[in-house]
Amino acid sequence: MSCNKCETSSTGCNCGSLGCPSIVSDKCVTISKSLDVCGVKTIPAGTSLDTTLKDTLAKLCELIDDASGSTGPTGATGATGATGAAGADGADGKGISSIVDNGNGTMTITYTDASTDIVPFIDTNKYYLLFNKVDVDQNTTTTPTALKTYTLPSSTLSNNGDYIKITANYWTPSSSTSYSVSGSITIGGVTLITAVWRSASSLSAVWEIYVTRISANSISYYTKSVFPNGNIDTSPVNTATLNLNLDQDIISYGNLAVVASGTAINSGVLRVEHFKQ
Length: 277
Known about the structure:
The chain is mainly beta. It folds into 3 domains: 4-62, no CATH class; 94-123, no CATH class; 127-275, Jelly Rolls (Sandwich). Helices cover 6% and strands 47% of the residues. It has 1 helix and 19 strands. The protein has one helix spanning 49-65; strands at 4-9, 12-17, 35-37, 41-43, 96-101, 106-111, 116-120, 127-133, 137-139, 145-152, 163-171, 179-187, 190-199, 204-215, 218-226, 232-234, 238-241, 248-256, 265-275. The strands form 5 sheets. Strands 8, 9, 11, 14, 15, 16, 17 and 19 form an 8-stranded antiparallel sheet that branches. It is elongated and about 130 Å long. The N and C termini lie far apart (123 Å).
């Protein structure tokens, strides 16, 4: 294939059938002014029309093909969409068909699926939490020391058969040697329980003491003890004289038998609950 074209040379434009390597047939035609291409390339004046067209088209193609430009600014938040349809109903829960007082401190709950539970029965009109101290009080001496105290108000046990439940907890830190500790609980000067135990590791003892009014001036009491070795001991029922028409202090005491480095007796809990007839 051949075409008519002119090519520049030192003597000017030579025209003739010299092949067709150019896009345009006349390479002697040039642009008279510089050309701005999309603001990213400037083709200077005097560039041949052939070169101008190729450069311009190449830059346009480059811009069209460039799909990874910088991220534009975030657009405005759109309006809130319409509320969706309501979800399906959940499965039916289990209701209560009946509650029966078993007369022994428990009640039986029967559910709508015929299943049952037997749970402790507490009449909130007859039960009161009077005191519940759970922070740690410590003694590192051999002197019996009041670690926790609660004053039972006068006439709290106002009816014969009313009683209080005292819960006390003691624990000891670990030691390189075994050592003995002592603890006791009193009410109005009456010792409800006292015990000595030996420990080398961090162990605890828990006492539950039940004090019942016999009359305005007398009580009965017994203790359920859980000792560090896991033994559970329930004491016989004892009686004592105590004026319940006066305020009476309930005190937890604790002390070491012999002072040794790193040894102590700690009182962790003193709780007093009141049960009325």
